[in-house]
Amino acid sequence: MASQSSIAIPVDSPFSLANIPFGIFSTQSQPHPRPGIAIGEHILDLKVLALEGIFTDCEVTFPSDVLTHMTLNAFAALGRPTTSGVRAYIQSLLSQSSSPLHSDPSLLERCAIKQIEATMHLPFDIGDFTDFTSSKTVSVECVDDIFTFRKDSLMYVFHPPRAASGRVSTILPSGIPIVRPFGHLPASTTLARTTGFSLAPTNELDFELELAFFISVPTEHFERVPVEKTEEHIFGVVLLNDWSARDIQIPETLPFGAFNAKNFASTISPWVVTLDALEPFKIEHDIRRVPSYLVDEGDATYDISVSLKVIPGESLEREMEMTRSCLRNSYWTFRQMLAFHTLSGCRMRTGDLIGTGTLSGEDATSLCSLIEQRKHFPNRTFLQDGDEVVFTAWCGPPQGGVGFGECRGVVLPARSFMVKARHPN
Amino acid sequence: MASQSSIAIPVDSPFSLANIPFGIFSTQSQPHPRPGIAIGEHILDLKVLALEGIFTDCEVTFPSDVLTHMTLNAFAALGRPTTSGVRAYIQSLLSQSSSPLHSDPSLLERCAIKQIEATMHLPFDIGDFTDFTSSKTVSVECVDDIFTFRKDSLMYVFHPPRAASGRVSTILPSGIPIVRPFGHLPASTTLARTTGFSLAPTNELDFELELAFFISVPTEHFERVPVEKTEEHIFGVVLLNDWSARDIQIPETLPFGAFNAKNFASTISPWVVTLDALEPFKIEHDIRRVPSYLVDEGDATYDISVSLKVIPGESLEREMEMTRSCLRNSYWTFRQMLAFHTLSGCRMRTGDLIGTGTLSGEDATSLCSLIEQRKHFPNRTFLQDGDEVVFTAWCGPPQGGVGFGECRGVVLPARSFMVKARHPN
């Protein structure tokens, strides 16, 4: 692959020629969502390229109309040999001097859009959303707060692996503001104590820094996917903020799991970094005591670093340290998650999203949620109205050129709630 | 409404003129799924009626092409005033002597299909699936088995209301066989005890008899729906079997909730009984101590009876008693469920499915899952391969003519699992 691109790429861009992440975007002049890839500070409009027949020269044969759809589902469902070939062809279009992007300036003008002029949408029509629990630290740190009843061991928390279905309708692309949710909360006032509950906006709004992967090729009903076949079903990876209201979560979790505490919003980064882009960053996963069907030896995971910061809204005096962690802190690999998920025969559909769970590490600067951070920094507050949470992720060294961009969300105040006067709580 | 129909209706049919449930069906000669209503032992093909312009005489104006779609989503999204009007018009088509169904025998021949010649499909493209916990009995009976850590009170189990997101990709229409799932189970053999877990098919496959309702008109992100507005967003009701593997569920539930224990399959009855059909069966809901935003006075729920039977596969000697219960046993009304669900601002989309949870009553013949029944009938076994589970539901007296049809599923043996020899468990 040549290092020159027909579109200028800043050296510190997360979207180098080595990346080529896929997403769905629209522009003011063309508001219909369509597929693109991110390159430097631009988007390459794949619909324009498809409609102009540019993909007829691609080495892999595929129905290029899938690149005119409003989601990536049909494209990803073609499977990795095809999507890898298309990605490689896009790299060659951008880098080779014989490419029409080099020889036809008007084509380049039609298909290169500045990212700041685009609106990003959800990359997939998401059928199901699953969120795992993968961080040893989360499990240990939070056991006191949320899971008060049993603290046996890590073996207990990870065997069987733990995951939950999540809400799909409220998965949002980066940048959409989050309205502070109301909750049916445990009694905290004298009046409420007489009834046992109160109605109030959450006072403990939190984030969870995660990665998540999208399913490409679907599976059949009651089909299991062995670990070594899982990558055939994974398209790529995004950042995920699994917004959580801890005061709503605690009573819900005993004994049924979080519901309203998490169903109001989850935010993902809009650019899907493919397994092909991640391939050079494969690393060995710590060998752990797992049942044979989950054994995942060799380079089974990826060297992906993640970071988060909270940009305070009004109370600017609050501390604002950067948190850094990495995918290594996940107890399970993506492959193990998918193998476990299908152990029951649970069907996967193209566009299903599977989150890692909070990626906290062991030291205090790598804790990926406020509920954990507050154990080490008691003065740190939960999210205030106006706070913006920003996640980033990248592979290898900071200037490796394979990054995830940002996953952002700002907190808006709760919407007022008219309580019927005759039944005060 | 006249009592005569252009299509013969057996007196004990659940699908009388007073019902008119909507569903999606196909036939061998026309395999494209399309909307229909059930009437007696027939289906009225709404796509044929729409394409022939029959709905131009309907009192409500609506885009009748929605009745040519492969799902009911676009139709239901029109909202209750419209869908009620269409249902009333279909009743008049069937009952009035001036109707083209009476005057044009060839039209009747083209649009009346025998149910036994049709294949039923999922009625909606389901975006999200939520399952509540509503039965006092389940909560109390099963506390010992599954939720060992705390038994405070019913107040504890229902405040806040408890619900969980469920798997959408494995919701199946009645009649699709269920493959017994494998599980990552707690140690039960000497060898497994050394590693703490074993890999085996579930030995405790169970059913849960529930009702569930479909969302019609969607809500906005972060919009709350007050109890008194909820019916504007509910299209109708089906039976739901939330298949559960109890030995997989118990370790998963502590502390994160069921996952593989329930994600392999859920079965629904294919005919959606509308709120209009249920309206004559409205009854008062027991007044319970609830926060003001959940107060639901007046005729807030429905007199719906449910029953289940297990038809044994091979071991015919097993007992086979009928279980009967009713929606009255639900702690929450449909309206309260939807109001609570949107308290956080969780967005609803057309086709979202919300289950009541197991509808067990207080006596031993009204327990709607085997895990509960086994407390009273210790010799009753969990489901065996070949067993078929059949649910039915009806309104008012048995011959009221407003029934739900059946929700059926037969259990198939687990599929063999090749475990890598070098890592025996």
From TrEMBL, chains A, B:
One of its GO terms (molecular function) is metal ion binding. It catalyses: 4-fumarylacetoacetate + H2O = acetoacetate + fumarate + H(+). Its EC number is 3.7.1.2. Substrate binds at Q249, T358. Ca(2+) binds at D131, E208, E210, D242. InterPro entries: Fumarylacetoacetase, Fumarylacetoacetase-like_C, Fumarylacetoacetase_C_sf, Fumarylacetoacetase_N, Fumarylacetoacetase_N_sf. It is an enzyme of class 3 (hydrolase). Keywords: Calcium, Hydrolase, Magnesium, Metal-binding, Phenylalanine catabolism, Tyrosine catabolism. Mg(2+) binds at D242, K262, S266. Residues 18-123 form the Fumarylacetoacetase N-terminal domain. Pathway: Amino-acid degradation; L-phenylalanine degradation; acetoacetate and fumarate from L-phenylalanine: step 6/6. Its cofactor is Mg(2+); Ca(2+). The keyword Translocase does not apply. Residues 165-411 form the Fumarylacetoacetase-like C-terminal domain. GO terms for biological process: homogentisate catabolic process; L-phenylalanine catabolic process; L-tyrosine catabolic process. Belongs to the FAH family. PANTHER family: FUMARYLACETOACETASE (PTHR43069:SF5). This is Fumarylacetoacetase. It comes from Suillus luteus UH-Slu-Lm8-n1.
